[in-house]
Amino acid sequence: MEEDQLLLLGERIDDLEVNGFRIIQNPSFFCFGMDAVLLANFARTRRKDRVMDLGTGTGIIPLLLTAKEKCAACDGLELQEPVAEMAGRSVKLNRAEEKIRILQGDIREVPEIFDRGSYDAVTCNPPYIKETSGLHNDTSSYNLARHEIAVSWEDVVRAAAFLLKPGGCFTLVHKPFRLPELMQTLKEYKLEPKRMQMVQPYRDKEPNMVLLEAVLGGGPQLTVLPALVVYESDGSYTRQVLDMYGKP
User: Fold this and answer.
1) What is the pLDDT of residues 173-202, one digit of tens each?
2) DSSP state, 81?
3) For residue 165, how far is the Cα from the chain centroid?
4) What is the CA radius of gyration of the chain?
5) Half-sphere exposure of 149 (CA within 13 A, CB side)
6) pLDDT > 90? residue 103
7) Are 211 and 196 in contact (CB under 8 A)?
8) Nearest to 68 by CA among 47, 48, 91
């Protein structure tokens, strides 16, 4: 299928700068950001792994994991039908149908859709902000992606624990201010935090993201990695970020 036949009104194709992979996006919906790129890099998925990305949005995590050869197969579950359909066209754009499958569905209904323990790894870039009364009736794509309107943090953790094989990894990106709650809920579902890395926008700024890896049934020992800094003082990417893109 020709590229122009895959695009709908208002959509564009962006280069992911990894092994020639590209993605279809529409500014009217939520477009992926740096957090998704960092999550895909942080995830220690293996070439033999079957991976599920919860709340996949544009399909950015499955696309990046496949482009980086960090999975055997990757499914993406997305609630919003038009966004899931767009992600599916990105899969076709990259001729990755044999490795990536985009499914439209609700994270809260994972036990009705999938078999328990059917994935080696689960990833998620969940909504960061708790639902507020002012946003209760605002179900725009952006607010669904960033606010816990359609799914809560506990819903995400419950789904991840259900999907993972014993010893499987759940990798996520979130906000540092919610760390106590994140850790508590993970432990309640037998997901033991094993690896953590703070992300700072600049060297002199406090972290604004945290990357976490938890293992289903893992032992109680957490490794805290050195902080990842995204930008130099002049606004250019740091060596750490450039290395993710394979840039000199």
Assistant:
1) 999 999 999 999 999 999 999 999 999 999
2) H
3) 19
4) 17
5) 18
6) yes
7) yes
8) 47
CA angle centred on 31, ends 91 and 129, rounded to 5°: 120
pLDDT tens digits, one per residue of 2-61: 676 788 888 999 999 899 999 999 988 888 889 999 999 999 999 999 999 999 999 999
Tell me if the pTM is above 0.85.
Answer: yes
Which residues lie closer than 8 Å to 55 by C-beta, 6 or more apart?
A: 77, 78, 79, 107, 124, 125, 126, 127, 145, 151, 156
200-225: average pLDDT: 96
DSSP 219-235: -S--EEPPPEE-B-TTS
Dist CA 205 CA 215 (whole Å)? 30
Q: What one-character DSSP code corresponds to residue 236? A: P
The Cα-based distances of 11 to 8, 29, 31, 34, 39 in angstroms read 6, 10, 11, 20, 24
Q: Is 4 exposed, middle or buried (0-12, 13-18, 19+ CB in 10 A)?
A: exposed
In contact, 100 and 89? CB cutoff 8 Å: no
Question: Span 112-135, mean pLDDT?
Answer: 85
Angle (nearest 5°) at CA 189 between 188 and 190:
95
